[in-house]
Amino acid sequence: MGRWWTAAVGRVRGAWAPVVEAALAATVAWLIAARLIGHPDPFFAPSAALIVLGESRGQRVRQSIELILGVAAGVLIADLVVHALGPGTATMLLVLLVTLGVTVAAGASSTLIVQTTISALYLVAVAVPKGEFTPFRFVDALIGGAVALAVSQLMVARNPLAPLVAEARQTYTDLADVLDRVGDALRRRDEEAAQAALVRARQLEGCMERLRGALHASAETLRLRVRRRRRLGQLAQVDATAQQLDDAVRNVRVLARNGLTLTRLPIATPPELGAAIRCLAEAVRAAGAALATDLTGEDADAHAVRADDTALTAVRMAAELLRAQPPLPVVMIVGQIRATAIDLVRGLGKDDVAVLSRVDEVLGLPTR
pTM (2 decimals)? Predict the structure, then answer.
């Protein structure tokens, strides 16, 4: 019970902002439709707000347009059909066909298609319109979408890059943590710890998805702010860095898998291997600090230089192991240290060819 409570509190802490955002948007949408405009049953205003906010950040402008073409148009069509034909099975079939056709033609997401269809069904089965036709529900849907978009932008108005900075720091921290776990497992020759490190490495893809989501959200926010559009070029560099980081995540996953294999062999693990991996973890942390610092507008050169130097040091330490003709898992890990170091330094904005030459020179491989 204690663990469940702790986990529940943690989930609430992590999601309090979206919860407040959704509740605020739905309430404001209802107030505008009910009190300001005077609609008698403004159900679709808060409903539409929640539909838009249900989409991930970075897609809400597009989703708002889809809302106009999908939810609002679907509700309007359903309203017209019910007024013309009255409630009944034939009306429900026609409303479903038309609503699904409109939302699919508009290119709506599967979630939005379902939500639009449910909204239309609500008109047919529950809130059957009475009296003369008035497009209250159509207007309510537009109000909800507009309020949702406005509230989502207000939540990040002061610092639109803050979510991206937080996700970048966390992603690099998680990647470094995996490397530390692998290095510690190898030092202790602990198969169980190595297995846990591999599991954690496989979870890094989720970290990358959140980072990409934060990147798209920041780009969306900056596009809506004329004075800050100049920073979109900076986000393009972050996108390039994220692609290199994605490659590094894959390399670390392979490294962790080979680390697990090594703990299962009846041989001693070279202490230099764990030291090289821990050094690589420090390079990851420095690269993360460089990216986060640059996004905040401060000088990130010191962090970038430290990341570059530490990554090359990790490769140099790993290269020493190859002279003793180590077993295949060690060779594989050294290869992944090399590949991860290359991805990290490339992510700092260094020239690809120069990075490859420098790393291979440190490793003792022939270079151009």
Answer: 0.69
pLDDT at 6: 65
Tokens (6 digits) for 46: 């808060």
Helix (H, G, I), strand (E, B) or coil at 322: helix
pLDDT in tens, 295-342: 887 888 899 999 999 999 999 999 888 887 888 889 999 999 999 999
What is d(CA 146, CA 160) in angstroms, rounded to the nearest whole number? 19
Q: Give the pair of three-digit tokens for residue 73.
A: 């148009």
Instruction: List the alpha helices (DSSP H) in 226-351.
Output: 232-263, 271-295, 301-319, 328-347
The answer to whether residue 135 scores a pLDDT higher than 70 is no
Answer yes or no: are the C-beta atoms of 288 and 176 closer than 8 Å: yes
Closest CA to 339 of 354, 351, 326, 355: 355
Q: Which two tokens stand for residue 90?
A: 């034939």
- How many Å from the N-terminal Cα to the C-terminal Cα in the chain? 62
At 227-255, the pLDDT tens digits run 555 566 677 788 888 999 999 999 999 99
Q: Quick one: pLDDT at residue 61?
A: 65
Provide the phi-psi class of 325: left if phi over 0, else alpha when psi is between -120 and 50, else beta: left
Half-sphere exposure of 178 (CA within 13 A, CB side): 30
d(CA 6, CA 274): 34
Work out whether the CA dihedral 214, 215, 217, 221 comes out positive or negative. positive
Q: Burial letters for 5-35: b for 16+ Cβ neighbours within 10 Å, e otherwise? A: eeeeeeeeeeeeeeeebbebbbebbbbbbbe
Sign of CA dihedral 108, 109, 113, 115: negative
Q: Are 315 and 363 in contact (CB under 8 A)?
A: yes
Rounded-to-integer distance, Cα 87 and Cα 64, Å: 29
DSSP 269: P
